[in-house]
């Protein structure tokens, strides 16, 4: 089975969010399970190759905006794995993200497939999020035989651009169902095009796959997604067990594993971090973490902030790591500057401190309004840190309330506070129960193997003529 994996970010070369992690770990696991998977993405100026050698494999021209554009395909190998990664260089459109970057990148992928510039013919093109939303459309309307799968990592980011970008790719508007409905606004919605034209679509958790059919979570696309309902499914992401491992993580000071003094290991890491943050060093006060993009629409920053302001801070220590919307960075900075002994806010994302928070914290807050999958709760659980999360999307699918974490239903600072206080009360008064939950969380299987098998099932379905022709 040959699969071309089209994505706009890839750890460790360029990352914006969880998608970059998935783009690394999923191909690795597909490859281990026998799939010939190759990754393709733009070669932005910001892409860091970390001294990897790149090899030029082809130069070609694509017509964009009526003009000839020169594109060079370089190939690198994906760290230790033997997975080719193709990076596409074009100084005008691909160096720096602009409104034309994704349409041009999508056009390049189409040209590469049409002309077999890789000297390798995939059966399937696996697209991710709106950045690759035009690929299924280009393939379908030009009658290429490749099958397409679109994975939705986040429905809230849809990639809405002026119709000009479509014209520049040379696509004929009249062929596009949805574009016709949108002509008044003169906007094309890349994600929507992807959903309509892909042969199969999946979301990154079974619950999110159901949620996006509803008005509450559908981000305006629910009716259209419901129409395409028969081709939509959900597959929960995994995490990369090689790099997320408290036994070997180089970023933490005290290593531990589920069979190797996990409670003691966590205590030592907690002491270290409390001291580093200038908090009182004590095991009688719970240390509660948050790690995430500061995106207020999604991540529940408002209810977390309200809750922290309301509770008696003498009783808790909060460590918050995240960057994004300036307004929210300011709010947490302010909070931390007033309550230095009990609230720490770190605004610059750093892998080392993230690992230290996972290892040291007693609990991790994940109060998201919506969460397609969420990786941090899984990483936290692997490090024996119990998530306190909203019962939505992938959080609902990865946490069992009272067994390996705590869930609250309603999106409200009061419900978050109530569940957090309940968790802390158990932590204070019933150490056996908490220790049992920590072990449950650490033992949980979030490896990619199972999810990769599910993706292979979808690939097989795509290739079986009766299913998707
Ligand atoms: C997006 C989603 C997140 C998901 C990640 C990887 O960042 O917001 O929930 O875990 O993609 O699929």
TrEMBL record:
Belongs to the glycosyltransferase 1 family. Bacterial/plant glycogen synthase subfamily. GO terms for biological process: glycogen biosynthetic process. This is Glycogen synthase. One of its GO terms (molecular function) is alpha-1,4-glucan glucosyltransferase (ADP-glucose donor) activity. The gene is glgA. It holds the Pfam family Glyco_trans_1_4. NCBIfam families: glgA. Pathway: Glycan biosynthesis; glycogen biosynthesis. It comes from the Bacteria.
């Amino acid at each position: 089975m040959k699969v071309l994996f089209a994505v706009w970010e890839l750890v460790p070369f360029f990352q914006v969010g969880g998608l970059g992690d998935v783009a690394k770990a999923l191909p690795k696991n597909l490859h281990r399970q026998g799939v010939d998977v190759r990754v393709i993405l733009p070669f932005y100026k910001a892409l860091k190759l970390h001294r990897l050698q790149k090899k030029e494999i082809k130069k070609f021209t694509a017509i964009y905006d009526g003009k000839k554009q020169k594109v060079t395909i370089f190939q690198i190998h994906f760290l230790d794995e033997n997975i080719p990664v193709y990076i596409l260089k074009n100084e005008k459109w691909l160096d720096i993200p602009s409104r034309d970057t994704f349409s041009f990148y999508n056009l390049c992928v189409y040209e590469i497939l049409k002309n077999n510039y890789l000297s390798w013919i995939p059966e399937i093109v696996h697209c991710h999020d709106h950045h690759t939303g035009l690929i299924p459309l280009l393939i379908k309307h030009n009658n290429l035989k490749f099958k397409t799968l679109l994975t939705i990592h986040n429905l809230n980011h849809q990639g809405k651009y002026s119709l000009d970008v479509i014209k520049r790719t040379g696509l004929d508007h009249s062929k596009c169902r949805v574009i016709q409905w949108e002509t008044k606004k003169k906007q094309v919605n890349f994600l929507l095009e992807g959903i309509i034209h892909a042969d199969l679509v999946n979301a990154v958790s079974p619950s999110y796959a159901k949620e996006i059919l509803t008005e509450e979570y559908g981000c305006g696309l629910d009716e259209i997604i419901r129409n395409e309902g028969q081709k939509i499914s959900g597959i929960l992401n995994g995490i990369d067990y090689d790099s997320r491992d408290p036994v070997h993580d180089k970023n933490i000071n005290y290593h531990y594993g589920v069979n190797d003094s996990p409670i003691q290991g966590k205590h030592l890491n907690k002491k270290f971090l409390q001291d580093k943050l200038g908090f009182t060093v004590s095991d009688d006060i719970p240390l509660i973490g948050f790690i995430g993009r500061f995106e207020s629409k999604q991540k529940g920053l408002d209810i977390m902030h309200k809750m922290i302001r309301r509770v008696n801070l003498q009783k808790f220590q909060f460590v918050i790591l995240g960057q994004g919307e300036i307004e929210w960075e300011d709010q947490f900075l302010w909070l931390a500057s007033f309550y230095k002994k009990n609230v720490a806010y770190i605004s610059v994302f750093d892998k080392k401190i993230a690992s230290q928070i996972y290892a040291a914290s007693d609990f991790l807050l994940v109060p998201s309004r919506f969460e397609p999958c969420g990786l941090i709760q899984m990483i936290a659980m692997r490090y024996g840190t119990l998530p306190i999360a909203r019962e939505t999307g992938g959080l609902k699918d990865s946490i069992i309330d009272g067994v390996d974490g705590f869930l609250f239903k309603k999106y409200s600072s009061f419900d978050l506070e109530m569940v957090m206080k309940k968790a802390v009360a158990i932590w204070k008064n019933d150490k056996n129960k908490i220790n049992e939950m920590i072990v449950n969380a650490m033992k949980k299987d979030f490896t990619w193997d199972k999810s990769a098998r599910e993706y292979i099932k979808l690939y097989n379905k795509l290739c079986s003529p009766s299913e998707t022709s």
